């Protein structure tokens, strides 16, 4: 009898300590910055979380025509399809239905809905039936806080999202990039082709920082191709972009560069790639 009681107490302590550890992780992470993210920025944030957790070939899909799949990635010899939902209330059935269909379209082995909140009971039941994985607020906290290096890197990205343009320029200087950029270098910001950047075909190359490059047909409307995320490319980051070549920049299009990214820009004489 004493042995049985001891075993019961042992398992009870495991459950309690595990729950407390999970709660401590949630408290230790500032979710307010995540909860305030714009939807597309949340997708790029999740992409970085996935990269830091061993996923390779992490790609954010086009803003339109993505069939409900926001990110594709590879891990454990399997292709994964993710739908990312930054919400203020628990998710219902629709995201599960969308990612289930979208994963088939992308021929993915795994379908996941990743969110900053939780899921309704009906959503959990449907996900189990369709074999869709549900990654909620607790999952996100665990992936961010799994080790100090990962947590520090991701929190730095969260902090950058809150940085004002003037502070962003100061950060560039503080990290060793001259205040006066070279003539062929452009920092994060919004640019109009034909006004800020001459019409033409260009190569964009990473110089400093991290952030995304996106073209728009007009200010804030109609994205032209998928966003491209730039970060330093080296031994540890060989899955990040370091350049975009032969980008056709047409009159009136808008170019948005985010984060603290600085890109080099040069004319290209090669065939055009429309983004």
Automatic annotation (TrEMBL):
<dbReference type="InterPro" id="IPR011335">
    <property type="entry name" value="Restrct_endonuc-II-like"/>
</dbReference>
<dbReference type="InterPro" id="IPR007560">
    <property type="entry name" value="Restrct_endonuc_IV_Mrr"/>
</dbReference>
<feature type="domain" description="Restriction endonuclease type IV Mrr">
    <location>
        <begin position="34"/>
        <end position="144"/>
    </location>
</feature>
<dbReference type="InterPro" id="IPR052906">
    <property type="entry name" value="Type_IV_Methyl-Rstrct_Enzyme"/>
</dbReference>
<dbReference type="GO" id="GO:0003677">
    <property type="term" value="F:DNA binding"/>
</dbReference>
<dbReference type="InterPro" id="IPR011856">
    <property type="entry name" value="tRNA_endonuc-like_dom_sf"/>
</dbReference>
<dbReference type="GO" id="GO:0015666">
    <property type="term" value="F:restriction endodeoxyribonuclease activity"/>
</dbReference>
<dbReference type="Pfam" id="PF04471">
    <property type="entry name" value="Mrr_cat"/>
</dbReference>
<protein>
    <recommendedName>
        <fullName>Restriction endonuclease type IV Mrr domain-containing protein</fullName>
    </recommendedName>
</protein>
<dbReference type="GO" id="GO:0009307">
    <property type="term" value="P:DNA restriction-modification system"/>
</dbReference>
């Amino acid at each position: 009898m004493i042995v049985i009681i001891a075993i019961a107490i042992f398992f009870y302590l495991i459950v309690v300590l595990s729950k407390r550890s999970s709660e401590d992780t949630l408290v230790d992470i500032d979710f307010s910055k995540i909860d305030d993210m714009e939807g597309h920025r949340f997708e790029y944030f999740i992409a970085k979380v996935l990269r830091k957790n061993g996923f390779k070939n992490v790609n954010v899909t086009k803003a339109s025509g993505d069939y409900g799949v926001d990110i594709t990635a590879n891990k454990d010899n399997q292709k994964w399809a993710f739908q990312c939902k930054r919400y203020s209330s628990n998710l219902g059935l629709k995201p599960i239905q969308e990612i289930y269909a979208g994963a088939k379209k992308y021929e993915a082995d795994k379908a996941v809905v990743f969110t900053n909140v939780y899921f309704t009971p009906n959503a959990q039941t449907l996900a189990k039936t369709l074999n869709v994985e549900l990654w909620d607020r607790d999952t996100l906290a665990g992936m961010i806080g799994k080790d100090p290096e990962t947590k520090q890197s991701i929190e730095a990205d969260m902090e950058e999202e809150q940085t004002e343009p003037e502070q962003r320029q100061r950060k560039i200087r503080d990290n060793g990039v001259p205040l006066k950029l070279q003539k062929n270098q452009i920092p994060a910001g919004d640019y109009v082709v034909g006004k800020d950047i001459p019409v033409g075909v260009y190569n964009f190359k990473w110089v400093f920082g991290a952030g995304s490059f996106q073209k728009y047909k007009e200010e804030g409307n109609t994205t032209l191709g998928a966003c491209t995320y730039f970060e330093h490319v080296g031994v540890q980051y060989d899955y990040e972009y370091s350049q975009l070549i032969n980008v056709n920049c047409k009159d009136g299009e808008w170019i948005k560069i985010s984060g603290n990214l600085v890109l080099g820009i040069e004319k290209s004489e090669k065939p055009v790639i429309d983004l």
